[in-house]
Amino acid sequence: MPTLKYSTEKDFSCYINVNSCGQQWLSGSDYDTNRRKGRVDFSLYYIEKGSCYFEFDGVHTFVPEGSLLLYPPRVPQHYYFKKEQDTKLKWSHFIGSSTSLLGDIPQNTPTIISLKNLKHFNSAFDKMIEAFYNVPVFGNDLTNGYMLVLLALIKQNTEYQKTPKSTSGDDGLNEVLSLMYAYFDHPIDIAKYANICHLSEDRFIRLFKSKTGMPPYRYQLKIRIDRAIEMLENRSVSVAECAEIVGFDDPAYFSRIFKKFTGHPPSYYKK
């Protein structure tokens, strides 16, 4: 007897079909997903809380809270979450001709989608997940109906952001910023970042400051402090643990830098 293999990657010739959907809290450990051949359907990942990172063609990109990450069929998927972000993820894998509602999004790269109004989107996503798992009669019809609502809301309120490309100057700076968000807890590598932008280190620092309002070292410190605030407000961690997670070896030095940026000691934000 042949072995039957279960898969959520159903490729139906239909108007709309949700192959799977759900939600998950991602905390306690880092999560990394790498599908080198992608999936046969569309993948929609909604970062309701926290943040996400994805890698495409060697470029690492930060996906902020409240954004969507959309993968067309057969596009390689490599996305990951850092445990300190305590991310709440919702997802849907779907297929069908109704995806034409998404308009002229790129079909060969992932796309970040920023919605202007998340209230109705949140509600429809929750109802879709509820119908998929808990509605025995007409559950599939309800699930697909709510997916159509999501597509319509995306079409109505969307601002698409192209995946950054590694080129030079301003475009190269997009990749640098993505790397800084992805590896904010690592020592900063000015030489590497300057090389990405095809600039000398001095010219890179001037370009960076002109675009962000601060030099690279201070920008990375700001990322670290912002992440530390999120962690202290939302997780039960000590100041020393928080300092180590965001890249500081010395808790006392972390506390001094933290107060310079915020005007308060870390304990002010502690959960």
Instruction: Please outline the major beta sheet.
Output: 6 strands, antiparallel
The CATH superfamily of the largest domain is identified as: Regulatory protein AraC
Helix content: 25-40%
CATH first level of the largest domain: which class? Mainly Beta
- SSE order: EEEEEEEEEHHEHHHHHH
> Unreliable segments (pLDDT under 50, ≥5 consecutive)?
1-7, 164-168
Q: Tell me the CATH topology of the largest domain.
A: Jelly Rolls
Principal-axis shape: globular
Distance between the termini: 57 Å
Radius of gyration: 21 Å
Beta-strand level of the residues, as a percent range?
15-25%
Structural class: alpha+beta
Helical run tally: 8
CATH A-level architecture of the largest domain:
Sandwich
What is the domain total for the residues?
Answer: 2
